[in-house]
């Protein structure tokens, strides 16, 4: 399958989900790569504030009023004033693949100066198997010009379906506030031409600014938690989703890849503002990581939905004692799955009332 062929074939199978609080001029930089695809834009913050989208894009635009209207009593599971609101777009999509990107990320260039089509590389990652059970020292054996090395078990070379593709960033690294404060001028200029499968049993800090996943395989586990306004924590939304998604992928026999593609991350956030949002998470993560490392899901959990509901029970039982917030989060994890099943009933057409107030076709 040629590079352009893969992209053209999947044109009707991909939604691009973008959370934003501002006009989306950044799409002009992505026009050559994004224009063939459908966009789901989730406007955060004040719903009375209009935002502009460049002409020529096929998009739906949702704001908080739409979230409240479509989800009703379940709308409280979608975060407010936090990029975690993007997962509302995951709920509404009916496509097989989701690519989500932040509005301060632009087209990066590889060392030869060629612009990187991030979406195309994500699709390549998702369309080829993962190898989570045995590490290949030449990284992804399904990339052109490489293969399995000597000593790699033939019984494992078929690989498993890839659930998620985690991309990286040039320029502004994805650092926490303490690291930002001690390295205020640091920029990532290191382009590593590699994709690898994260081994089974290994967690990682997922970032949502350059991420793609197979919605059919793992979509219900891609809940970005309860963050932002009214919550004691922020900036941990993608990490929470990543930890949940990874343990569920491990249980269901799926793989997760990380590495290429790169995007150019242009905007450095304020480390003092970030510290206020993150500080509880910095303490809590020392208990969260051991929790996720020890999670065991019963064999009866055969779908991402069932796994996620079971995980919510374990969150309440084991993390509720860390802080009352985790009891609330566990309840909202269940609400999220209820909303997912309501908006994504099997063998039924999508509900007509799940249309935004304003959309462009």
From TrEMBL:
Glycans are attached at residue 150. It comes from Vigna radiata var. radiata (Mung bean). Pfam families: RGP (PF03214). GO terms for molecular function: UDP-arabinopyranose mutase activity. Its main location: Golgi. This is UDP-arabinopyranose mutase. Belongs to the RGP family. The keyword Protein transport does not apply. One of its GO terms (cellular component) is Golgi apparatus. Its EC number is 5.4.99.30. InterPro entries: Nucleotide-diphossugar_trans (IPR029044), RGP (IPR004901), RGP_fam (IPR037595). Keywords: Cell wall biogenesis/degradation, Glycoprotein, Golgi apparatus, Isomerase. Transmembrane segments: none annotated. It catalyses: UDP-beta-L-arabinofuranose = UDP-beta-L-arabinopyranose. It is found in: Golgi apparatus. PANTHER family: ALPHA-1,4-GLUCAN-PROTEIN SYNTHASE, UDP-ARABINOSE MUTASE. Probable UDP-L-arabinose mutase involved in the biosynthesis of cell wall non-cellulosic polysaccharides. It is an enzyme of class 5 (isomerase). GO terms for biological process: cell wall organization; plant-type cell wall organization or biogenesis; UDP-L-arabinose metabolic process. The record marks 150, 157 as: Required for activity.
